[in-house]
Design goal:
With 150 residues, the protein is mainly alpha-helical. The protein has six helices and two strands, in the order ααααααββ. It has one domain (2-149). The chain has helices at residues 2-25, 30-43, 53-66, 70-82, 89-92, 107-119; strands spanning 144-145, 148-149. It has a two-stranded antiparallel sheet. A hairpin with a 2-residue loop joins β1 (144-145) and β2. The radius of gyration is 17 Å and the shape is globular. 16% of the residues are buried.
Amino acid sequence: MALWATQGCLNACCVLLLVLQVHESATSSEHEQRILLETIVSLLPSERNAVPCSFLFSLLRTAIILDTTVACRLDLETRIGMQLEQATLDDLLIPSFSYTGDTLFDVDIVQRIAVNFLQQDEGDDLQVSSPQTSKYWNLNGQLTIGIVQF
C-alpha cells in the first residue's frame, strides 16, 4: 500500500515537473514557476527513500535557479541528507550561481547536506569526537567523505 502511494506521489511530481517545463516554455513568470516548484517540494513524502536522490538533486538545482525560499531549499537539502549514500558525484556537483567567481560548484550546499547526513543518527548534536562520526572528520576538524574533503 505504501509503495503504491509513493509511486503515485512520484508520478504526480513527474507530471508537475512536466507542467513546469511546459509552463516555462510558454514564457511564464519566474514567480509562477517558483510557486509551482515550492508546491511540488511541499507535496513530497517525508519518508526516507520515498523519492530518488537524483530527483531531489534536480529539484534542488531548479530551486536554486528559481531562487525559491530558503525554507524550500533547506527542506530539499535535509531530504537529500537523509539518503546521501545514494548520491553520485554528478549529483553533488551543484553549480555555484554566485558571481564572486570563487568556485564553480557550491561547496556550502554540499557541506550542509553532508552535515545533515551525519546528524540523521545522532539527533541535533553533531559531535566531531563521537565514535560514529570520527571516520568522517580529520584531525583539523574538516569534514571528509571518502577522498573528498570539505
